[in-house]
């Protein structure tokens, strides 16, 4: 449960910073609630193995970036390379956070 709140908080903080810097649109806030729900669904995919980064973090980040792309096209927002790279960075960091909380549970 703490994992979902922490990841969602990190996501909202990064979104806020990049919205202030005008890299992404404010409609991206609509993705915060699906990300919170996706955290509970993806938690069983991560195991206690002490790896800091896995390929599945990037895959989940790109998958969620594709969901963001669908949201942008639905609201007719511009989706260029800057938006793509910014959202991919944010989503990958969030999924690495989700994974690291579960991966390093063995050390606690």
SSE inventory with pairings:
Elements lengths: L1 H19 L11 H11 L12 H20 L6 H23 L5
Helix pairs in contact: 1-2, 1-4, 3-4
Total helical elements: 4
Q: What does the average pLDDT come to?
A: 82
Please give the oligomerization state of what you see: single chain
Compute the CA-based radius of gyration.
14 Å
Q: What low-confidence regions span 5 or more consecutive residues with pLDDT below 50?
A: none
Find the count of extended strands (DSSP E, 2+ residues): 0
Structural category = mainly alpha
Shape: elongated
Strand content: under 5%
| Proportion in helices | 55-70%
Sheet with most strands: none
Order of helices and strands: HHHH
Report, as a whole number of angstroms, the end-to-end distance. 16 Å
Description:
With 108 residues, this protein is mainly alpha-helical. It is 68% helix and 0% strand. The chain has helices at 2-20, 32-42, 55-74, 81-103. α1 (2-20) runs antiparallel to α2 (32-42), α1 (2-20) packs antiparallel against α4 and α3 crosses α4. It is elongated. The mean pLDDT is 82.
